[in-house]
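Final paragraph of the annual report: two paired records, presented back to back.
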Amino acid sequence: MLVGGVLRFLRSLSAGGVVLGTIFFAASLTPTLIPRSFLVQGGLSGACFAIGYAIGVGWRWLWRYMQLPEPRGRLERWLKIVVLGACLILAVIFLRNTTDWQNSIHALMEMEPVSSVHPTKVSLIAILTFLALVMLARLFMVVVHLISKGADRVLPPRVSRVMGFSLGIILFWSVANGLLVRYTLHVLDSSFAAFDALFEPDRDQPTSPLQTGSAASLLAWEELGRTGRRFVSSGPNAQDISEFTGQPALEPIRVYASLRAGDSATTRAKLAFDELKRVGGFERSALVVITPTGTGWVDPAAIDTVEYLQRGDIASVAQQYSYLSSPLSLLVEPDYGMEAAQALFAQVYGYWTTLPHDHRPKLYLQGLSLGALNSERSTDIFEILGDPIQGAVWSGPPFASRIWRQVTEARNAGSPAWLPEFRTGSTFRFMNQNGPTVPAQTKWGPMRIVYLQYASDAITFFDYRDLYRRPDWMNAPRGPDVSPHLQWFPIVTMLQLAVDMAVANTTPMGFGHVFAPEHYLKAWLAVTDPKDWSPEDIERLSRYLAERGR
């Protein structure tokens, strides 16, 4: 009985759908930016097969609707056998090459090669994914048929079919978006909030009155959350910096306002600002306004490096705006991070502009991933031209970053999309593992903005337009960490890059979306331009940070 059911299901499949589905399946096995496990690859390949199959079925329907000739009888059966055989051969050929393709990325990212990507497991997971999606599609068609059948009693047949299809889409979208997605995200948000509230047994409350979370602080230690407590109590202290440099150093100032600190972004920003004033943040030589990632996490490599460069004579302030990870926060609260970033910057910048120019710190912005996007949004560059900040270090800017995209698309002719050069390089510069392409002697303007990005970072280089056109960053020469085997395929490449975004943080440090401290050091050197560091000391610091960060 089971065998008979399987045979009936196979006979019900569209030959044209299987052909296009197999082509999509094969294309999905080619490498993109991030190495994929067999589980991820199987799910991706199954989804691509299903999409290709759906397009093939649609094409078959259109062919019949136009009443074009079709093979019948024995010819049709033989054509199906030949086509299915060809599809099987194509799938096997591509599956045999998958290990080499994945290892081409492993080699560039200095990872151990894999002996196999388990093509049998990939195929089984892909088949299960395809079957689940086919069953979901057939359930949709049943719902559409029932709605249309009910509407047939009062409406013409064609009108009832259109109504049935439209109502079916609305119903499925409402269930998927309202019940599944929103409910799941609500559960995740509650879970992350509970986790953020947990206390770490090995992290003690600060005793110095100049530290956020101490008994003298305006922000209670209990209300900082895990990410806030980690931020204010970690990093190098004055002794660490002094021991490395051999010179006196100050204790770096770190201020953090979590979601528990207040009911609104404005309230939390005011608390962070008042705390910053209380601990003397505006009396330091440099001040960094940090926009964290979605969870409120601040990349230690991003701030530790500049604290060493400034020999501790620096203050930094950050405000949490979500418990969710950056991709989830971008989906659920796309504007909330911007509101928090704008509120904090307005407080800091508004007061900073009232201070005498020779008695105020140099002001910088910093953000990673979603933090880079919201840090970009925190201010209008044109509004601060009269009294500009000194600069910004934005790492891994998401593809939705407006300024980043405008500058990238307006890059100088001949410069690659993955490491652009913009006009004279006096305001915007781009860096990767190898530093900038702009010569070191190139003069800066009054404001210095550096984008630190890796060519293998799908969060930066994903684009919905990849659905129908080849992205510029695939053109030669390619980035140093991009596989030469990477090819563009309509629809499939966009899906591959979407999956790459989800696993972009799984790469070794210095690739994908995981930024190395020595690369942050290059970015901060360009932005802050310290005069009291020799090339030998900078190289020594780079090696030290690299060893410390790994």
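The closing record of the year follows.
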Amino acid sequence: MKNLLSHINSPIDLRKLSKEDLPQVAQELRAFIIDIVSTKEGHLGASLGVVELTIALHYVFDTPNDLLVWDVGHQAYGHKILTERREIFHTNRQRNGVSGFPKRDESDYDTFGVGHSSTAISAALGMAIASKLQENFTKQHIAVVGDASIASGMAFEAMNHAGVTDTNILIILNDNAIGIDPSVGALKMYLTNVKKGTQKQDNIFEALNFDYSGPIDGHDIFAVVAELERLKTVKGPKFLHVITTKGKGLQKAEEDQVKYHAPGKFDKHTGELTPKNTAHLPPKFQDVFGHTIVELAKANEKIVGITPAMPTGSSLKFMMEAIPDRAFDVGIAEQHAVTLAAGMATQGLIPFCNVYSTFLQRAYDQVIHDVALQNLPVIFCLDRAGLVGQDGATHHGVFDLAYLRCIPNLIIFAPLHEVALRNMMYTAQLGLEHPIAIRYPRGRGMLQEWKEPFSTIEIGKGRCIKEGTHIAVLSVGHIGFAAIEAVKEFDASKRIALYDMQFVKPLDKELLHEIFNHFNTIVTLENGVINGGFGTAVIEFASEFNYTNNIYVRGIPDTFIEHGTVEELHDECGISKKAIKELLLTLLGTHN
């Protein structure tokens, strides 16, 4: 049988095929995705689930002239392969390679950059309104949204607006009952009832003034093509409900949809994951959080846990299993998660609100108004803080130190290692007078023996971890280990002092006075943006007290950092062990 996919370089080639050829294209596209992701890693299940839908969309619509917007982007691998990137798709998520998400400057077919969820309907509606104002009444505008994403407030805001317009917009609900973890909430129950045919109430989407059709089988490519061709002729806002299976075509991925969202390397024939021997490795920070909150919550009945749709990624799943009535997955709803935590705090509960650093950006107003302004002792645990690697610019958690530092009442703590994370969680639940943000990185820590007895941490106090004579390195967070390892590698290490400052707010001013009076040369180190971050705070301190010491700030520069391994990106930003060693050797040379 002739291979069809190898001859499809763009949707123009796809449209030259007969409809009868499309199932074969689907089979080949699925195999192509599995083949690449099995060795290169990436997001698997979501893209496998929308293979037929992806082919149908590019077959029926005149992309890129018709505008197709993918929500989140986890499911866009098939889209990328069909749109002029098949031959370079093996570089997916690698440095200088194809992005793992739709990206406007990568392709004209990527109409909107997406990494966070629930933005597609707003973006597509904006495009549709623009077409109407430009008197283009033939252009199509399509948003593909998952059932987890459509439950988000922003998606509802956009539908509320779209329903009272006469724009040419089509919303496609890719309903597979799972995002990264299983979907939650009343809307999920409603969609389940629709699929079963037991939903007796008015159709919610028709009530919002959409022309609703479905649900249809998203893996019946002929049915999907036929319905899309019909909808092309329908005016005004339209809504198509498509039922799919995440991981479709790889049995293991269908059976364990959470694990195979982004499974790492696996056998492309059997789906078996490539075994990893992790017994000798330190734990992931997320697991330290997850096990510690269970330990604390068993002793303190006021503790509750909250996560917006990331129970597995945050490891709050451990508490959801052990103490289910006090652990809450609120769905893709960061704003709600924060204000929910605030409400709980007013009633004496101790909420641990676990949000990825990059996702807390979506709830900035709530952090200010609902938590900090009212000085409610919410405990924010910010996972994936700093550079996260192959997910790239949309997911790097590099802004939190800067965007949180300017908020009154808020304590900001960054643990050097796992024990410090545990102890700060312990300290926070004992009772604080202010809210606190505890930020820690993606990946593993450094300590095998991390389950030590709890001890309290004094708020606003840093510590000297190595004395020296000429240069002081001040770090916050786990990135401090890069300096510790760098200093071990040269003979003049006695001339370098190392300080784990721990708190970005409040700064340990007493310790800073000691440092500034003793060292003429000071280096600050952070896994966050330089502008407005920890180093900036140290410079502000120096200005306030008229110090004229030489201060060298190392962190993330004023640009969006693309995807690559964490090691590559740390090197690029000058915060790797190698880069710090080179800086310190240069500075030591000026003292000779």
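The longest strand covers residues 521-529. This concludes the annual technical report; the extension proposal builds directly on these records.
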